[in-house]
């Protein structure tokens, strides 16, 4: 199926097939009066004016802004239950890690996820993906980590695989069995790490259920050295590495990410200069999660310093039932401007190309260029600044995924 999107007021896109850092983070192509020609789900041409001939459907963009589809590079999509019962505790000032240490937080979601069947988990996550699609997301990374035993981790990952067949968003799967120490291994950290390395990782790899492995490297969760062991074991099985690093305390997560050449390090709220230098040295993408800072009342990561150091910055939601029970990439875009002080063109790269790169998808999506998947948004705007200036409402008008019009407001 061919589709011509014409009468685009302004087309704005980063360019390339790899993450862009430093000054290049803000280098985007803008083109007035453009069209995008799509053939067989792929972009065939991006030009000004009208093509000489076209055989297929046409979509009049009505002078709107056109960008690549958004990539949400960090979610904990599949889980049972919610955690609204912890809201009062949080409002009374009980810290996130204290709630976890008391057996709540992640462990509360683990109990609910273990109790849920695959269909229930899939139906619930599907609803969330439908919201995200309407908000402009065309690629989404999804982590496991609420099973914390072999059976239930594999269950979560299989749900993600099933979801790929039930809706259009491209899903990237990450195994995160090292999200917390499960209650039954309290006092036996080595036993659980052994289970992760000897049993879970090989099974996940054998079934091809995950492209990445992520570890929550945090005070009271997994140490830097434990994280390194788990992640290098995953790398040996062909998986890429991601690290939840320096979310609350800087205990060495960004250093490990740099040293092992992780594709991305997540959160980085507490990252110090040495941590930022380690990311740069290891070619690691900083995956920043400003909606979590908002929800936990925490500081915001030092995004400007990361860009100044030449580290490519991406921004994602962190959708999860604890620290970010909302999956709105447009809010992330607003926060990246106001709290990180990134410019709209830098944020555009952060939520498209750099996010695609952090998800291993930069050769396939994240820009509007010939040969890439036709993941395209039309916005209710005729310029780029407006979509960062407005907030709290969905400004996406049309979502095109793999060349198909999947949302039209
Ligand atoms: O369920 O609390 N930070 N993992 C690390 C999370 C937040 C998700 C959760
Ligand atoms: Zn997370």
Topology:
Elements: E1 2-13, E2 29-39, E3 42-48, E4 57-60, E5 65-68, E6 70-72, H1 87-91, H2 96-101, H3 106-115, H4 118-134, E7 137-143, H5 150-164, E8 170-178, H6 189-206, E9 212-217, H7 224-236, E10 240-245, H8 253-260, E11 264-267, H9 273-282, E12 285-288, H10 290-296, H11 303-308, E13 313-315, H12 329-338, H13 344-351, H14 353-358, E14 376-379, H15 385-389, E15 396-401, E16 404-408
Parallel strand pairs: 1-4, 1-5, 6-7, 7-8, 8-9, 9-10, 10-11, 11-12, 12-13
Antiparallel strand pairs: 1-2, 2-3, 5-14, 14-15, 15-16
Helix pairs in contact: 4-5, 5-6, 6-7, 7-8, 8-9, 12-13
Just give the CATH class of the largest domain.
Alpha Beta
Give the helix/strand class: alpha/beta
* β-strand number: 16
Number of domains: 2
Amount of beta strand? 15-25%
- DSSP summary: helix tally: 15
> Average pLDDT value?
97
Q: Which residues sit in consecutive blocks of at least 5 with pLDDT less than 50?
A: none
What is the makeup of the main sheet? 8 strands, mixed
